């Protein structure tokens, strides 16, 4: 449960007079989780750049690390926008099925 709370998929709900823990799904959980993780992608990209910088003598490793870093930066930028696009489609009713 702690993991799911930490990922913002569920939230703890307290009820007056009830000592048991209760949980509820967070509204818009997946989109919120993806948006909240964008800084993580940017941080990982910076670490991959540092790996590339430290391995200049291994050009193939540098190229792979830079490629991964570029992809992670792309995720950091795109994931929040994709979540916004999904919300807009959902709210407009234009999503199929």
Description:
It is a single chain. The protein is mostly helical. Helix content is 66%, strand content 8%. The chain contains four helices and two strands, in the order αββααα. The chain has helices at residues 2-6, 29-36, 38-54, 59-92, and strands at 10-13, 22-25. Strands 1-2 form a two-stranded antiparallel ribbon. A hairpin with an 8-residue loop joins strand 1 (10-13) and strand 2 (22-25). The mean pLDDT is 89.
Low-confidence stretches: none
Largest sheet: 2 strands, antiparallel
Number of strands: 2
Q: What's the helix-strand series?
A: HEEHHH
- Helix/strand-derived category reads mainly alpha
State the shape. Answer: elongated
Please tally the helical runs, counting DSSP H or I stretches of 4 or more residues.
Answer: 4
Give the strand order, joined by hyphens, for the main sheet: 1-2
Strand content of the residues, in percent? Answer: 5-15%
Q: Please state the average pLDDT score.
A: 89
Measure the end-to-end span: 31 Å
Provide the helix percentage.
55-70%
Rg result: 19 Å
What descriptive keywords fit this protein?
about 100 residues; 2 strands; 4 helices; single chain; mainly alpha; two-stranded antiparallel ribbon; about 10% strand
Spell out the blueprint of helices and strands.
Blueprint (H helix, E strand, L loop, with lengths): L1 H5 L3 E4 L8 E4 L3 H8 L1 H17 L4 H34 L5
Antiparallel strand pairs: 1-2
Helix pairs in contact: 2-4, 3-4
Short description:
This protein is mainly alpha-helical and 97 residues long. It is 66% helix and 8% strand.
């Amino acid at each position: 449960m702690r993991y799911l709370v930490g990922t913002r998929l569920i939230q703890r709900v307290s009820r007056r007079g009830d000592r048991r823990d209760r949980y509820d799904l967070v509204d818009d959980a997946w989109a919120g989780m993806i948006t909240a993780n964008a800084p993580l992608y940017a941080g990982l990209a910076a670490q991959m750049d540092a790996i590339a910088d430290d391995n200049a003598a291994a050009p193939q490793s540098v190229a792979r690390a830079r490629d991964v870093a570029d992809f992670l930066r792309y995720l950091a930028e795109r994931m929040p926008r994709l979540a916004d696009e999904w919300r807009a489609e959902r709210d407009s009713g234009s999503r199929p099925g």
